[in-house]
Amino acid sequence: MKLINTEAGVAALRHSRANVVTAAIDRIDFHHPVFIGDFLTLKASLNFVGKTSMEVGVRVESENPLTGEKMHTGSEYLTYVALDRDNRPIVLPPLILQKNQDIHRNKEAQERRQMRLAESKKVKQSR
């Protein structure tokens, strides 16, 4: 999980060109186990950028070094906020969607964001 957070944080930092903090880990799905000695490949993609927050998706793949077999072992969604020198959120540059896959990821991320906001509202109302 630390590797996932690090990989996603790098993607968020590269987009914002500022210090970033993890605001939320939306979901982590483990599809297959990773064994000691397996190679890991992590691929991060920026899926959504709002005013001050951004969602990064991470795909984790494992590879058996003896057989070369690769498996999709996990998928995660994390939300980051970029901060200024006073640790206040900054306005982020927009996300430029160039490929159909980017547009698809962005649409799904917007749906997840709406669910997160609705859940957050429920929690606040129940307090």
Secondary-structure blueprint:
Layout: H1 2-16, E1 19-30, E2 39-49, E3 53-63, E4 70-83, H2 100-126
Antiparallel strand pairs: 1-4, 2-3, 3-4
Sum this structure up briefly.
With 127 residues, the chain is of the alpha+beta class. The chain has helices at residues 2-16, 100-126, and strands at 19-30, 39-49, 53-63, 70-83.
Features of the shown structure:
single chain, 127 residues, alpha+beta, Thiol Ester Dehydrase, Chain A, four-stranded antiparallel beta sheet, 4 strands, 38% strand
Integer count of domains:
1
Q: Report how far the terminal alpha carbons are from each other.
A: 30 Å
Fraction of residues in helix? 25-40%
Q: For the report, how would you describe the main beta sheet?
A: 4 strands, antiparallel
Number of strands: 4
**What's the architecture in CATH terms?**
Roll
And the CATH topology?
Thiol Ester Dehydrase, Chain A
Sequence stretches where pLDDT stays below 50 over 5 or more residues:
none
Tell me the CATH superfamily. Answer: Hotdog Thioesterase
Residue-averaged pLDDT: 95
| Global shape | globular
Strand order of the largest sheet: 1-4-3-2
Count of alpha and pi helical runs: 2
Q: What's the CATH class, please?
A: Alpha Beta
Q: Structural class, please?
A: alpha+beta
Order of helices and strands: HEEEEH
Q: Write down the Rg.
A: 16 Å
Give the strand content. Answer: 35-45%
